Amino acid sequence: MEASEPQPKSGPTVPIPEQQQPQEQQIDPWSVDAGKDSQGNALAFDYVAISKKWNTQLIDEKLLERFTKLTGHKPHRWLRRGLFFSHRDFDKVLDTYERGESFFLYTGRGPSSGSMHIGHTIPFEFTKWLQDVFDVPCVIMLTDDEKALFRESLTFEQAMEFSMENARDIIAVGFDPKKTFIYSDLKYFSNHFLMNAWEFSKLLTFNQVRGAFGFNESTNTGRIFFPSLQCAAAFATSYPELWSDVPSATRSETVAKMQCLIPMAIDQDAYFRLLRDNCHRMARPGPKPALIHSRFLTALQGVGGKMSSSNPNSAIFMSDTPAQIKKKINRYAFSGGRETLEEHREFGGNPDIDVTYQYLTYFEEDDAKIQGIAEAYRAGTLTTGDLKKECITLLQEYVNGYQTRRKEVTDEVLELYMKPRKLEWGRSHTKTHNPHCAINDLMYYEITRPMTGADSAIT
Ligand code: TRP
Predict the structure, then answer these.
(1) Which of 69, 79, 86, 132 is the most buried (most CB within 10 A)?
(2) In terms of residue numbers, what domain contains 195?
(3) According to the UniProt record, where is the region Disordered (predicted)?
């Protein structure tokens, strides 16, 4: 524990407010609030309660064991440690993989001017890991349209520029260019994508959208239509150029059957509940898109908050210098340690509410080491200062690796990822299949490709 650094604390130093109604947690795609107790103190998010309320499945040991057996990979540390904690039909995706069929990944980001922080990069890192493990294509939607619709002062032109900058940030995560398509909504939407979105919007009533998002009669009509766009992105037929050199002229029934898996933070679930409840009514239906949900990344200030771009001291940004990272962790990371070193040695600290410890669990791969750290912290043999030093080093390495890759994203590289083109994955690029069969058969082959057997562990 560093006695010289003032440690933010809750408890007796905060004046006790009057008794008030406890406030329930509130989560939607535009604002999240963990709620307050009857004293007005911020509570931590209750993820089990969210999962129950929205009827999602919690990720359990059994599911992870099946994943390991099937893929030969150890589950990512974010699965082992519950950062990705919930799903809808992920087991069905595993069935698809077991049958030797392919699926595709879809995720996205609302582009904003600021540099991404670690809370933004984590879902992308995880999606890239899924892409490597399953050897599948991935589409990444940049919702510049959504950002401009929801932020009064933002023009559509500015939002589109943010998309281009954010695409570079996402490329720096390391997605395979052969298997990845990144697009700006405002630039890309046309043809089958729009047809899917219009068709889907025809199935949705204002009542349904209002129920999911709390809109009212004064909400602008763009916001009311937008959910159909975010949902249509989960239909493989929205991207005819990705599956064949000669894109199908009409929306292909075979392509529509391709399973989609959407990794996301739990706040996006409202969109995809609408999708899953209504997609079977499309003219060419496919399997219900599967979802895998993450928690929110804890803000530096403590477990009740979420990292936010509008508060630079709440998060580690991917543009931070090593000195800034050190300062932020030392100065702002909420400590579960004791007031003085003597007390800490005697009574020990609490890693469960310690933000530095939480961040260590995001980035330290070694489970035994993490467990050892938690035990030593509880016993008081490890101080907050020791913990912070360890965490600072890991974060500096992570951000530095990212910044190096970000510098390599030239205009040409950007263009490569954002060009609609046939993606190549699994065996689809080996051309060992019969070149004379019809386009639809070709697509069928590519989509239901047999497993290569080369799915060895990623190092
Ligand atoms: N609406 C999301 C945001 O504002 C962006 C997004 C679009 C997304 N499609 C997605 C996020 C799919 C996760 C999964 O950030």
Answers:
(1) 86
(2) 58-297
(3) 1-33
